[in-house]
Design brief:
Blueprint: H1 2-12, E1 24-26, E2 30-35, E3 38-44, E4 49-52, E5 56-57, E6 60-65, E7 76-80, E8 87-88, E9 101-103, E10 110-111, E11 124-127, E12 133-134, E13 147-150, E14 156-157, E15 170-172, E16 179-180, E17 202-203, E18 225-226, E19 238-240, E20 247-248, E21 261-263, E22 270-271, E23 284-285, E24 293-294, E25 307-309, E26 316-317, E27 329-331, H2 337-345, E28 348-349
Parallel strand pairs: 3-6, 4-7, 6-8, 7-9, 8-10, 10-12, 11-13, 13-15, 14-16, 16-17, 17-18, 19-21, 20-22, 21-23, 22-24, 24-26, 25-27, 27-28
Antiparallel strand pairs: 1-2, 2-3, 5-6
Length: about 350
């Protein structure tokens, strides 16, 4: 019983739930929550316009903005979060549709789920490197956001941080970024190009999915992992995978209508299901001698794929891997698995 009561006390002190657990006071603009010797700002009832979060209340320092504090506040147009603030809670400013500018302090370390989601008038953003914890969807749906700069020192572009930021044209990634997480830039349909840092290690699932204007990208040699559907439904015209990538993931380039050329690294052993399905303009791709498997529908409906060599190293090719590849001729090694597969699948052999 004592352990249960202790757990309740711990959770009651978490900032995300301060309004349910601690003493509070209210003035003309805010509700203030007291935690030990710190203050968290709660529900806003002020007049709007340019709002500066107070840095102290009754001689106690303000350390955070509670979840939902400004949610759907249509009167706020500019936000200044002062130095000393370390935390912004879940959905704190979600739906502030007339908010055009925010200033984030260098003391900020944590931004919770959807804190600025659907701030549809926000157009420029600078994110300080001190923020170490982002939860999902922080700036999701900020449909007017055009330019983003991340301060040098940031190491991660968080999950779905700019998902559905359909006006985003420019994002400056610092050299210190090593991971772009799942869906970080998904559906940023105005993003035409992006420079990836030389030290990047991981591209997460759906990282650039549905970026319908993204025509070119250079993958650094440092990259060791690419997630599923990373470039699905982009506008890439060519793609070169670095030597460090040994497998092509599920739906990596599915339904890219403009993709013409793909270069795989010499160590690739597997191409997953649907990897290039629906790339109707794909003409050339090299299949390295290390390749062991090609998944089902991997090249299905690649109508313009012309000449490929199926290496003797192949031991598995999935169902309809080359279905509807009506321009395709293949070269095979006599007596290989690839030769028997080609015959069974009715592929045209090169003379």
């Amino acid at each position: 019983m004592k352990q249960f009561l202790l757990l309740l006390l711990v959770f009651a002190l978490l900032p995300i739930a301060v309004h349910a657990a601690v003493p509070s006071e209210t003035d003309a603009e805010y509700t203030y929550y007291f935690i030990d010797d710190f203050i968290y700002v709660g529900k806003y009832t002020g007049e709007g316009g340019t709002v500066t979060i107070p840095s102290q209340y009754k001689d106690l320092p303000v350390r955070g903005v509670d979840g939902y504090a400004f949610q759907n506040c249509e009167t706020i147009t500019e936000l200044i979060i002062p130095e000393g603030i370390t935390y912004v809670g879940s959905h704190a400013f979600q739906g502030c549709k007339n908010l055009t500018a925010i200033s984030l302090p260098s003391t900020l370390t944590t931004i919770d789920d959807g804190a600025f989601q659907d701030c549809i008038s926000l157009d420029n953003l600078f994110i300080p490197a001190t923020i170490k914890t982002f939860n999902i969807n922080v700036f999701r749906g900020c449909t007017s956001l055009k330019n983003v700069t991340l301060e040098e020192g940031m190491t991660v572009l968080p999950t779905q941080i700019f998902y559905e930021c359909i006006a985003l044209e420019t994002i400056v990634l610092p050299s210190t970024i090593t991971e772009i997480q799942n869906g970080a830039l998904r559906t940023c349909v105005s993003l035409k190009n992006v420079t990836l840092p030389e030290n990047l290690l991981i591209l997460g699932e759906n990282a650039f999915r549905e970026c319908g204007s993204l025509e070119e990208i250079t993958l650094p040699d440092s990259l060791i992992e690419i997630g599923e559907a990373c470039f699905m439904q982009t506008a890439l015209k060519s793609l070169v995978l670095p030597e460090s990538i040994t497998s092509v993931p599920f739906q990596l380039c599915m339904s890219i209508n403009h993709l013409e050329n793909v270069t795989l690294g010499s160590a690739v052993t597997a191409i997953a299901d649907n990897a290039f399905q629906g790339c109707g303009y794909l003409k050339t791709i090299n299949l390295p001698d290390t390749l062991e498997s090609i998944g089902q529908w991997a090249f299905n409906m690649c109508f313009r794929l012309e000449n490929i060599t199926l290496p003797a190293s192949l031991t598995e090719i999935g169902m309809d891997a080359f279905g509807a590849c009506r321009s395709l001729t293949v070269s095979v090694t006599p007596g290989s698995y690839a030769e028997s597969y080609a015959a069974q699948a009715g592929l045209t052999l090169a003379e």
